[in-house]
Amino acid sequence: MSDVRANVEAVLPQVIEDLKTLIAIPSVSSIPAHDPDVLRGAELIAGWFGELGADAKVVSEGGQPAVIAKFPAPEGQPTVLLYAHSDVQPFGDLAQWTTEPTRATEKDGRLYGRGAADDKNGVAAHLAALRAFGGKPPVGVTIFIEGEEECGSDSLPNIIARHREELRADVFVIADSGDWDAGRPAITNTLRGLGECVVTVRTLDHGVHSGEFGGLVPDALTTLCRLLATLHDERGNVAVPGLVRTPGPDLEYPEDRLADECGKLPGTQWIGEGPLVERMWTGPAISVLALDATRVADASNTLIPQASAKIGMRLAPGDEGPRAMQCLVDHLRAHVEWGAELEITQPSTGEGTVIPEDSPAVQAMQEAMTEAWGVPAVFMGTGGSIPMIAEFQATYPGAQVLCVGSCDPGSRIHGVDESLDLDDFRKFALSEALLLEKLAR
């Protein structure tokens, strides 16, 4: 272990500089104007692994580019696939950032910048592990860096279908999760599934005067609001029948820490009932993500004829996405009032994941994290979704899967001032290198 630790420490300074270079590329996959940036990032990453001797290439199968780089397995050794994604979320309101999102800035032991935590640090951790072995790891390694995770991974099924054998592995390490807390590593073993749809309500074929017809004719926005209100009961529990809820882990999530992490205002109450981790990780959630209606600035005394909302669901691990979506559709159709027309479009779902805690790969990662951090890893869930884990599990049913990462509760992923704890990143990179060593037969 001492050689691995020393080798990782030796390569980390340059890896962190390379991470800063990657953060400087605004690889926002959801905005077409940034398509050249996503490609530039992919080409840079392929070049880094190619310099280490990998057969590295950029592939595109109808969506944003991805990187596949292969280090052949020594005789008799397994192959490990190391996954991360290089695309990022939009920056939001730049005025709220205290640093520039595309200029990586070190401050108080953290590295600030968009993608520092989600998920360019995953790319950098893989790079550190491979450089620590001089491009000759003790097991076969396939690097798979996706370029459109933040916008839905729409072309991922095509990539898996057309590169099925190239991506085949005995162990899949998904570096897109995080720590339980700064200084305390975690292995994520449950992830929620997801579903989305757009709901449109129509009550009129054109807008009419609210004074002449108000009190008799329902407007579309009021009708839509009443429909959306049926998605939860008075305590905030999801009220759509048929959605699965499973028990959460025996893990206490301090309320004051949770309030600080989510930025809850002092007077805002928690919604739902049951243990906090169950509500966040293993139970369903429904949110109204967006509304299309007349803007306040453009409002007139008019009953609007049509209004739309985008609804997002998070599903308990093990629930089935298409079945859960049908439950939502049935609920909406049953509860729309006043004879309004209802249209449901753009339905999409992704499967949740349950990762066995007792697989040899998970046990090896537990050992590696204990050696790197000096404390044992926590098993935790996440309310977020990584549907591609379920796709890997379905495509390669004999493979073991790990979901890990080095962002922490203070990382503010997807938000302003996203950042990475550099000490945890160093430990995560070391744990990954140790994992490869432990998985060698």
Short descriptors:
six-stranded mixed sheet, elongated, about 20% strand, about 450 residues, 18 strands, single chain, four-stranded antiparallel sheet, alpha+beta, 2 domains, Alpha-Beta Plaits, Aminopeptidase, 13 helices
Explain what you see.
The chain has 441 residues and is of the alpha+beta class. The chain folds into two domains: 2-191 and 353-439, Aminopeptidase (3-Layer(aba) Sandwich); 193-259 and 271-350, Alpha-Beta Plaits (2-Layer Sandwich). Helix content is 34%, strand content 22%. The protein has 13 helices and 18 strands. It has a six-stranded mixed β-sheet with strand order 1-2-6-3-7-17, sandwiched between helices. It has a four-stranded antiparallel β-sheet with strand order 11-13-9-14. The chain is elongated and about 80 Å long. It starts with a helix and ends with a helix.
